[in-house]
């Protein structure tokens, strides 16, 4: 089986335990499972494995099946933004009362040499093996591996239930670049429009923003547009 399934299960379980939930609290409850993950390459190394062991759609389904969850279940692949899109979708489902609680997870593991070769041939990887983000030396990205899981609930409900609250999400949003100089080329206009939309939705004054987590791919095209 794809190791991503096991790691997602472990981290989702850890997140639920940290939130104060045991297996009895979760079983057959309206809890959604939202997983962001790019198309994995493990299947190419595991010949003969069945589809439920390796298909990306099973990343979320396996977790929901094991935990006996009854809310919305989806695996989302929007490349770099997969986990954040999963987070946004979870927020939407919570606001629409399609689930009471949401588990949001993201995972990326690289197993096959061919994955790096493909990215390199596309000119996306740094030949130096270093990601010089927002630097004149920027010449490509360096892939990373990680797995993460968080538990979301409406803030008022989390407070009422006595749950530990680490942060609140004021707003989120999605859009697309439309037609640019290339299908992978970002659009500064689209990025600006999205930020304005989310700030307005969340009623946040940009002067009060203290910390920004950037995409920061370390490319000559993407970094200046993001800035």
UniProtKB/TrEMBL annotation:
User: Keywords for this entry?
Assistant: Phosphopantetheine, Phosphoprotein
- Boundaries of each Ketosynthase family 3 (KS3) domain copy? 1-227
Which Gene3D superfamilies does the entry link to? Answer: 3.40.47.10
**What is the official name of this protein in its record?**
Polyketide synthase BKS1
Question: Which biological process terms from the Gene Ontology are attached to this UniProt entry?
Answer: fatty acid biosynthetic process
Q: Which Pfam families match?
A: ketoacyl-synt, Ketoacyl-synt_C
Against InterPro entries, the record matches this protein to: Ketoacyl_synth_C, Ketoacyl_synth_N, PKS_Beta-ketoAc_synthase_dom, PKS_NRPS_Biosynth_Enz, Thiolase-like
Q: Which organism is it from?
A: Candidatus Endobugula sertula
Task: Offer an example of a GO molecular function term for this protein.
Answer: fatty acid synthase activity
């Amino acid at each position: 089986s794809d190791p991503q399934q096991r790691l997602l299960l472990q981290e989702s379980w850890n997140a639920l335990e940290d939130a104060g939930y045991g297996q009895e609290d979760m079983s057959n409850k309206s809890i959604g499972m939202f997983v962001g993950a790019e198309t994995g390459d493990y299947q190419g190394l595991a010949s003969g494995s069945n589809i439920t062991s390796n298909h990306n759609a099973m990343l979320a389904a396996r977790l929901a099946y094991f935990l006996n969850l009854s809310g919305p279940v989806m695996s989302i692949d929007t490349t770099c933004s997969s986990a954040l899109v999963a987070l946004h979708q979870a927020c939407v489902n919570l606001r629409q009362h399609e689930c009471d609680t949401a588990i949001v997870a993201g995972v990326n593991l690289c197993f096959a040499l061919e994955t790096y070769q493909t990215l390199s041939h596309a000119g996306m990887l740094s030949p130096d093996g270093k990601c010089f983000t927002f630097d004149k030396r920027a010449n490509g990205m360096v892939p990373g591996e990680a797995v993460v899981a968080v538990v979301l609930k409406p803030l008022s409900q989390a407070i009422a239930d006595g749950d530990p609250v680490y942060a609140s999400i004021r707003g989120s949003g999605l859009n697309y670049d439309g037609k640019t100089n290339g299908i992978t080329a970002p659009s500064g206009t689209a990025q600006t429009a999205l930020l304005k939309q989310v700030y307005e939705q969340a009623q946040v004054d940009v002067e009060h923003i203290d910390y920004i987590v950037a995409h920061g791919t370390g490319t000559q095209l993407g970094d200046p547009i993001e800035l």
